[in-house]
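Need a sequence for this fold. Nothing fancy.
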């Protein structure tokens, strides 16, 4: 098992397939983009599949989420999913995407073995989408959401970040739209993972603010006994259900005590926390002929030193050097 000194066991693997993206979201990267990883630095398709196999068969991982950057930009994505779906035991597999390429890929991804998808969409207004992403692709995201549903990946989840002064007035409207379309909406507090390091705590729309805004139009009741466990989202039934909404308060309502995640970057580094400032290099051992057992031991060592929390509540908190696009969501 991937266990740490606090007794937490990592069963959820986040695999970043690329640091590249076809959007330029203001809370993620500058308009000109970033210096992307060179191809030789990236794990190959076979290397990714091997790392997932080690995680699943040697280390007890049960859930695999493919992320980026934008994972749909990875040419071998379908083959990677198909190979991972053939593993025994078969992991549950999901994908976090901006949705732009889903219209043409959703069916193939589903046939390859992808179980579900999370699509990032921060606004229902095309002009606000352009301001936030610096691209005119709003219609493509909506089409991608429809394609994912048609391919049988329901419930399709929609991830939304509210930005003060831009889309922070859209929370009730977004929820109404999601309920009408059968999507499960999850609001996410803006996190200090932008490449510009311009995040300010005072600018962030908090979970409490989001819930207050939603409560102005909907009746929200905690789902079940509201036992969050390792799930990042706190979930509420909307007007008695069956529709529901989630809020991920990574900053103001952290879930570190029950975290069950381990992360593999596109260039083969293990991160034991999204906000870690240290990484453990597995790529060198992988390419030097290490056995599966040796790779598993290195991975275990990387997770053993995981800190108790992200440190976001510490005034001395420092952002990781890598931005979200290079870490993986």
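Here you go.
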């Amino acid at each position: 098992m991937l266990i740490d000194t606090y007794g937490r066991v990592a069963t959820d693997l986040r695999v970043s397939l690329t640091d590249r993206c076809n959007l330029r979201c203001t809370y993620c990267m500058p308009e000109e983009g970033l210096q992307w990883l060179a191809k030789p630095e990236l794990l190959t398709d076979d290397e990714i599949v091997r790392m997932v196999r080690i995680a699943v068969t040697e280390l007890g991982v049960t859930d695999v989420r493919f992320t980026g950057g934008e994972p749909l930009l990875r040419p071998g994505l379908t083959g990677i999913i198909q190979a991972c779906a053939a593993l025994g035991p078969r992991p549950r597999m999901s994908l976090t995407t901006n949705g732009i390429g889903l219209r043409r890929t959703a069916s193939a991804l589903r046939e390859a073995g992808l179980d579900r998808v999370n699509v990032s969409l921060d606004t229902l207004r095309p002009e606000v989408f352009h301001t936030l992403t610096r691209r005119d692709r709003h219609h493509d995201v909506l089409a991608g959401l429809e394609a994912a549903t048609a391919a049988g990946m329901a419930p399709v989840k929609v991830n939304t970040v509210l930005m003060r002064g831009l889309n922070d007035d859209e929370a009730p409207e977004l929820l109404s739209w999601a309920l009408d379309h059968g999507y499960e909406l999850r609001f996410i507090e803006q996190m200090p993972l932008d490449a510009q390091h311009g995040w300010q705590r005072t600018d962030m729309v908090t979970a409490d603010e989001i819930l207050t805004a939603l409560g102005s139009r909907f009746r929200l009741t905690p789902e079940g006994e509201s036992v969050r466990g390792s799930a990042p989202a706190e979930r509420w039934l909307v007007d008695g259900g069956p529709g529901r909404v989630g809020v991920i308060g990574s900053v103001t309502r952290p879930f570190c005590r029950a975290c069950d995640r381990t992360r593999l970057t596109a260039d083969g580094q293990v991160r034991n926390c999204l906000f870690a400032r240290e990484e453990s290099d597995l790529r060198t051992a992988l390419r030097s002929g290490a056995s599966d057992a040796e790779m598993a031991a290195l991975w275990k060592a990387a997770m053993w030193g995981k800190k108790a929390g992200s440190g976001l509540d510490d005034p001395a908190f420092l952002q990781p050097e890598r931005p979200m696009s290079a870490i993986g969501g």
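For context: The two ends are 23 Å apart (CA to CA).
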